[in-house]
């Protein structure tokens, strides 16, 4: 979010350096920053885990991750230069004595750099290890330096409101809030950051961005993948915790927030937390009117046979865990009173797509002859987050010819067509922000808790009332029928993005 200059010298400790996140995301992102000349002049990366790796084996393992997962899989010409900055430390994070090695490395690097580096502890470990690690790190002298020492905490941040609150209290007892970076990788996506630019760098849209013009809003974050090996985590989470509590509510905040006075991290976060606090609390007894859950059964995905969720390895054969969730929210404030926000997400859905749709109200009066159009399509603004990266505005246009015949057309801004520059991966942006000490795109303690508060009644109602109809959707569909009913009851339907230039429906 900052307007970047090259960061100060930095030491990265990745606790969980032998794990999947480091392999898939963190090292590819750091390497891309290196290729783009964004890494500090002096930096060092220490991967930590219990697995026995020599430095050479560790680097070879990480290089394999670049080949598989980096957006620049084959750009390895600078890998040797980059990997000189990497080492592996075999360490059990539950061993109290082991933390001395960390202090020693920092002292050695300080001498070598001849400067006081920023020290970043990235906790890429299972959530149950986080409290213990934070306690140990908090006791190190280097962490008393509020300006230089930072701790990065991955999702899930807590399992519910109470555990999130306890984790916040613990972290804040060891670190200043300004040192804590709670990751929500959606906030690092280019198209998500662009929502702020679109809304607040243009005078055109803000006057109509409210209940007077907008009929309803939809947010779809559909995935075509399944569990991707994270079965045991997912069985404790489910779609509501995994996607709605964090990513989807953050998208909703970006759409619904008031204009910030400045781009100060706390100013933006204040405006977002105002939205979370304004979301109408769903009463437990009304949860079924506002929320729908689903679980996929066995079926086919892109020509491949897939097992149902309950048949996945490590999953309870009678699991009540939802792999799909749809919710209708209201934001009770002057801007959004009465405007429903429909959100949905799920695994093994028809296609991977994350879109935000602002459906405008119809024009107040159509003066055109009845034969001008079969049906009137109100204006619609669609923000495609991924995999398409575009913004489309739908409006009525006169078809060429002697008669006044109208049809809907799209005005499109497409990232790839508009800019030659590539878009960085979310983790690249976020890691650079951490190095620069810019917390704008990270979750503050009160934001995380406010988001848990929003979904708590649904979590509790679902826990108290086990599902009777699971599995209730087939892989490759758009989820359970009840999700269609949720929105159809209000006279709407879920909008999926047609390919550009295709005739509009719905
Ligand atoms: N993977 C992903 O795509 C995503 C992951 N996340 C989050 O990131 C975090 C890490 O996930 P992921 O990488 O998938 O998990 P993995 O299970 O792949 O990795 C866990 C890491 O923790 C290390 N570890 C476990 N116990 C100890 C210990 N006692 N001492 C030292 N190291 C230990 C493991 O090292 P070793 O076995 O060598 O001891 C390993 O490096 C989780 O919170 C997850 O929710 C969030 C979004 C996406
Ligand atoms: O945080 C998570 O996000 C991914 C989806 O991320 P995306 O960037 O591919 O949209 C999701 O698959 C995973 O279950 C969840 O933990």
UniProtKB/TrEMBL annotation:
It catalyses: D-glucose 6-phosphate + NADP(+) = 6-phospho-D-glucono-1,5-lactone + NADPH + H(+). Its EC number is 1.1.1.49. One of its GO terms (cellular component) is cytosol. Residues 14-194 form the Glucose-6-phosphate dehydrogenase NAD-binding domain. Substrate binds at residues 185, 189, 223, 242, 347, 352. Residues 196-494 form the Glucose-6-phosphate dehydrogenase C-terminal domain. InterPro entries: G6P_DH (IPR001282), G6P_DH_AS (IPR019796), G6P_DH_C (IPR022675), G6P_DH_NAD-bd (IPR022674), NAD(P)-bd_dom_sf (IPR036291). GO terms for biological process: glucose metabolic process; pentose-phosphate shunt, oxidative branch. It holds the Pfam family G6PD_N. SUPFAM superfamilies: Glyceraldehyde-3-phosphate dehydrogenase-like, C-terminal domain (SSF55347), NAD(P)-binding Rossmann-fold domains (SSF51735). It is an enzyme of class 1 (oxidoreductase). Keywords: Carbohydrate metabolism, Glucose metabolism, NADP, Oxidoreductase. Gene3D superfamilies: Dihydrodipicolinate Reductase, domain 2, NAD(P)-binding Rossmann-like Domain. Pathway: Carbohydrate degradation; pentose phosphate pathway; D-ribulose 5-phosphate from D-glucose 6-phosphate (oxidative stage): step 1/3. Belongs to the glucose-6-phosphate dehydrogenase family. PANTHER family: GLUCOSE-6-PHOSPHATE 1-DEHYDROGENASE (PTHR23429:SF0), GLUCOSE-6-PHOSPHATE 1-DEHYDROGENASE G6PD (PTHR23429). This is Glucose-6-phosphate 1-dehydrogenase. The gene is zwf.
């Amino acid at each position: 979010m900052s307007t970047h200059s090259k960061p100060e010298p930095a030491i990265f400790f990745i606790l969980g350096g032998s794990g999947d996140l480091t392999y898939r995301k963190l090292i590819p992102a750091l390497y891309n920053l290196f290729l783009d000349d964004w890494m500090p002049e002096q930096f060092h990366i220490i991967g930590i885990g219990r697995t026995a790796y020599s430095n050479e084996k560790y680097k070879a393992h990480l290089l394999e991750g670049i080949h598989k997962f980096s957006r620049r899989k084959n750009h390895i010409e600078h890998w040797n230069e980059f990997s000189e900055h990497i080492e592996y430390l075999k360490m059990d994070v539950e061993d109290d004595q082991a933390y001395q090695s960390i202090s020693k490395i920092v002292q050695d690097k300080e001498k070598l750099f001849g400067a006081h580096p920023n020290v970043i502890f990235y906790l890429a470990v299972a959530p149950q290890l986080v409290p213990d690690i934070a306690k140990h790190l908090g006791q190190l002298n280097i962490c008393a330096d509020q300006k230089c020492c930072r701790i990065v905490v991955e999702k899930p941040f807590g399992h519910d409101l109470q555990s999130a609150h306890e984790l916040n209290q613990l972290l804040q007892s060891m670190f200043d809030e300004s040192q804590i970076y709670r990751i929500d990788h959606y906030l690092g996506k280019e198209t998500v950051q662009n929502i702020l630019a679109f809304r607040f760098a243009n005078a055109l849209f803000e006057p109509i961005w409210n209940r007077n013009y907008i009929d309803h809003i939809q947010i779809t974050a559909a995935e075509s993948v399944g569990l991707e090996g994270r079965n045991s985590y997912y069985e404790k989470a489910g779609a509501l915790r995994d996607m709605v509590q964090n990513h989807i509510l953050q998208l909703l905040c970006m759409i619904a927030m008031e204009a910030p006075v400045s781009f100060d991290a706390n100013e933006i976060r204040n405006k977002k937390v105002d939205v979370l606090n304004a979301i109408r609390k769903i009463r437990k007894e009304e949860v079924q009117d506002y929320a729908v859950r689903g679980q996929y059964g066995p079926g086919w995905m892109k020509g491949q046979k897939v097992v149902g969720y309950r048949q996945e390895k490590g999953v309870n054969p009678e699991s009540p865990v939802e792999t799909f969730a749809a919710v209708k929210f209201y934001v009770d404030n002057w801007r959004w009173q009465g405007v429903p926000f429909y959100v949905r997400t799920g695994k093994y859905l028809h296609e991977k797509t994350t879109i935000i749709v602002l459906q405008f109200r119809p024009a107040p009066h159509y003066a055109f002859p009845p034969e001008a159009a079969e049906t009137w399509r109100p204006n619609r603004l669609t923000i495609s987050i991924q995999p398409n990266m575009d913004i489309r505005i739908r409006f009525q246009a006169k078809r060429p010819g002697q008669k006044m015949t109208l049809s809907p057309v799209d005005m499109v801004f497409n990232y790839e067509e508009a800019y030659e520059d590539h878009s960085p991966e979310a983790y690249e942006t976020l890691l650079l922000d951490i190095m620069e000490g810019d917390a704008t795109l990270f979750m503050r303690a009160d934001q995380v808790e406010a988001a848990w508060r929003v979904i708590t009644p649904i979590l509790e109602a679902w826990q108290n009332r086990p599902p009777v109809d699971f599995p209730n959707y087939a892989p490759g569909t758009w989820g359970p029928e009840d999700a269609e009913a949720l929105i159809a009851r209000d006279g709407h339907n879920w909008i999926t993005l047609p390919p550009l230039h295709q005739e509009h429906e719905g």
